[in-house]
Amino acid sequence: MNDYFLLPMASLPFPNIDPILVQIGPLAVHWYGIGYIVGILFAWWYAKRLVTNTRLWPDGVLPMKPIDLDDFIVWAAVGVVLGGRTGYVLFYDLKRYIDHPFDILAIWQGGMSFHGGLLGVILAMTLFSIKRGIRTWSLFDVVAAGVPVGLGLVRIANFVNAELWGRVTDVSWGVVFCNERLQQTVAGCVAGLEPRHPSQLYEALLEGLVLFLVLRFLTHSRLKLKTPRFVGGAFICGYGLSRIFVEFFREPDQQLGYLLGGWLTMGMVLSLPMVLAGIWAMATARPAPQPQPA
Length: 294
Fold this sequence. Notes:
Elements: E1 12-13, E2 20-24, E3 27-30, H1 31-50, H2 66-91, H3 94-99, H4 114-132, H5 136-160, E4 175-176, H6 180-183, H7 199-221, H8 230-247, H9 266-284
Helix pairs in contact: 1-2, 1-5, 2-4, 5-7, 5-8, 7-8, 8-9
């Protein structure tokens, strides 16, 4: 009998969604890639909305021109992809990529690190802001405000891909990451037939929806864009806290396992400095100097 039909009754079925949205010959468009593209485009559109709203800035003086963000989107995309891939290779699976270096280019197979992508974008923002004469922290603030949407979409794509699943659980909403389509693949149902936390959806909720709403409150209700680096600090602190919390429910990467005591993971180690840096940024943020009259 097919093991798929012996799944625990007290669990939710894994949806039968193909990770490939459309395929034309050898060209395949994955939900994972769509998540990144839509996320970057939304952050670009949202940032342009913020920098054209005079109510959000000191004395209505805008920190940059919308065309600056049009130009920056290419820098951001390069920073996300190169930083995210480099971070995954270095932080999560270095031995494999030393043995198979050409696999580094196979981004469509997954394997992106948020922490690496963040460092890549920070570098891109720093270089771009210096080149354009823009206050670096204000660029960071407006970009960070829209990033959670992309994070949420990518985490949903992780769920569709049946990857980065959670730990075994007996909660009623536990998901068995197996269906007939997965059983027919080479990898099969690698998560097993036990119900697991849908930790990807936990992250989508916290890092995506909740964090976006918190930042929206800070930008539009508390007018914190008038205080450079506060919104950016809230973003990196909020992400770090969300990631650390979800790591308690997420299965650690197989090639790494737990780093200490059956609970400490690489995600926690990389996120703790973000929390500290975010707290520092918010605590030391000061209102932008008022423009002097001519």
